[in-house]
Design brief:
By secondary structure, the protein is α/β, with parallel strands linked by helices. Helices cover 37% and strands 18% of the residues. It is built from nine helices and seven strands; from the N terminus they run αααβααβααββαββαβ. The strands form two sheets. The chain has a five-stranded parallel β-sheet with strand order 1-7-6-2-3, sandwiched between helices. It has a two-stranded antiparallel ribbon with strand order 4-5. α9 links the parallel β6 (192-200) and β7. It is globular and about 50 Å long. The relative contact order is 0.16.
């Protein structure tokens, strides 16, 4: 009772607000109000036979299911959400978004045979500077729905790369060549892993991660990204 009274007092003077519309959140709403939640720019790629996200990785026969939850565009809703947890420390938002995406995907039977989740690694220096890996936070949210473990150690990033933002498609792929390395091939032997990332643009970073994972015998790979750029 005292905790509820304290929460009511805090919300009275410091009301929680929706990240997107800034309207006050009501009880049981978290981060995003119900109206904004229902109007997120969802891709619904998991229901699309011509899935454009899957087409980005057509050169990898070991890749199974691929989807992205939201469309990412400059100054759009997905960008505002991702920037909130990627650059402003709103870690619980990343887990929340991973969870609501996972609920929808699990209900549709997507990723049903996945054994473990692998967040796309950051370079240790970049992760130390930021304080966390945003893809790992998203994976934690997915894990809470699917019950799969999150593998943080079996693949690592061995090269520090500069931002991809202003690079061409070709430059992006060159920039990330051989930047990942598997550290434990035995534990993933024959497993179905789900690579988790925050944003897919050209697919260059994810492809580099796939190439490293293909050093593991009989591995199966699926891919989830919280968002994908509109160009795809």
């Amino acid at each position: 009772m005292m905790i509820q009274l304290l929460n009511n007092f805090i919300n009275l003077f410091y009301p929680r607000s929706c990240i997107l519309c800034r309207n006050p959140l009501i009880e049981h709403e978290r981060h995003i109000c119900l109206n904004c939640l229902q109007n997120l720019p969802e891709t619904c790629y998991h229901t699309n036979k011509g899935n454009p996200a899957r087409a980005l990785f057509a050169g990898f026969p070991q890749v199974n299911e691929v989807t992205a939850f939201l469309f990412f565009e400059k100054d759009g809703k997905a960008q505002r959400l991702i920037h909130s947890f990627k650059y402003y420390g709103n870690k619980s938002l990343a887990e929340y978004l991973g969870r609501i995406a996972a609920i929808e995907l699990k209900d549709a039977g997507f990723y049903a045979s996945v054994d473990t989740l692998i967040p796309v690694p950051l370079h240790p220096d970049k992760e130390k500077k930021r304080g966390y890996n945003q893809s790992e936070l998203i994976a934690n949210g997915i894990s809470s729905v699917y019950g799969c473990s999150v593998d943080r150690t079996s693949i690592k990033r061995i090269a520090y790369t500069v931002s991809q933002t202003r690079k061409s498609v070709y430059e992006r792929h060159v920039n990330v060549e051989k930047i990942f390395k598997p550290t434990d091939t035995e534990s993933l032997f024959g497993k179905h892993v789900l690579l988790v990332d925050d944003v897919i643009t050209t697919g260059a970073t994810t492809s580099a991660c796939i190439e490293a994972l293909l050093e593991i015998p009989e591995i199966k790979i699926s891919i989830f990204s919280l968002a994908i750029t509109m160009e795809n």
